[in-house]
Amino acid sequence: MDKEIRQFLEFLQMDKKLSDNTLQSYRRDILQFERYLNDKKINYTEITEENIEEYMEYLKSVGKKSSTISRSLATIRSFYQYLIKNKKIETNPTSKVPSPKIEKRVPSVLTSEEVELLLDQPNEVDLKGIRDKAMLEFAYATGMKVTEIMNLNIDDVDLKNATATSRVSKKVRVVPIGQYSLRALKEYIKKARPILIKDESNKALFVNLNGSRLTRQGFWKIIKYYKEQAHISKDITPYILRHSFATHLLQNGADLKAIQVMLGHSDISSTQVYAQFQTPELKEVYKNLLELKQEVLIQISEIISEDDGNLTIYMNDGQKIKVSRANFAQKLNYYDEISKYIDDKKNTTLNLINGAYLETSKSEKQRIQNIKNLLAKNSVDASNDKEKTTSESQNKEDNSSSDKNTTQNRAINSQNNNQASTQANKRKNT
User: Which of these, 64, 134, 300, 307, has the minimum number of CB atoms within 10 Å of its CB?
Assistant: First the structure.
């Protein structure tokens, strides 16, 4: 069997062009399977479906996780498919063996504050600090796998267009680079990398202090170092940075399809696990935004979540609109038709929460003049009520100012409540 295993692994490397890490996983799985067969004195060419199922139970009995057992079965199934293709056996004993159900675990994530704290740790006064800053920013802002990042060459980064091209195995994908990461990357490429590399023929993007391509293990050690320096209690790995990236994208309104593309998932089912990080409120808003007509959507300049659960939307033409968070799309889609009848968009509020009506706010000067006109029409001496009118005016003015301040405070509070997601959005620039 040794010969067949060696040829099988060579086939995976040459024909399938699997990464080194994936090949190592295949090697471990198939060698473990071989030891089991040897212990049971079972010939691999005479193995049965029952033997495979017994092996699955054995793996379970020694504490292997469902994901590990499923991967082992996939390896064995691939091995026997290879043997059939090469006329070594006639039937595949694994064909009817079901894969164990894998429970999709909730990915560990960092809060936006923890991400900021971690990314601020490198001291950019030396070559190591400049490199580490660029690497951490890049890992978070692109959501790339560790293997992808470590395999990047300098030519894979387009600083002008702010993109990076991943070329792992046969998969090629282009990922945008956020502005924070782009700044740090430019600094590293300009100031640190030329000094770190000993051989100008070295094409690796990220290198160690000896000038060689940085390894996955090296990257893990760097993250662990800054995690401890930041006194963050959570375990932090490159994978957690990747999960955090996806989660923060979602919380900033990105849909699962966009996240699938950014993470390089071949199947959106792998991305579905992140759906749980959407709040019900965000889901409502996002659902409505998807239902908006494009010609209406592009006219929105700002959306503010109010304390009462409704939204205040500001349009590019200056119109302020109050809407219900749950169903604003069905009403806002008629905005172009409604707006034709609104002459003063900057001093009115279109209320679409219950029905549709216009709230007009007149200037204080005009209001006072109307009072004076009314008093004069009724032969009342306006001067006698000057003090009263002025007092009333002042009170109204104070109330108006108070209302204005309340609105501003709401907006500020909303911004503060969403400061974390705003920072994440700035970093990803997606």
Answer: 307
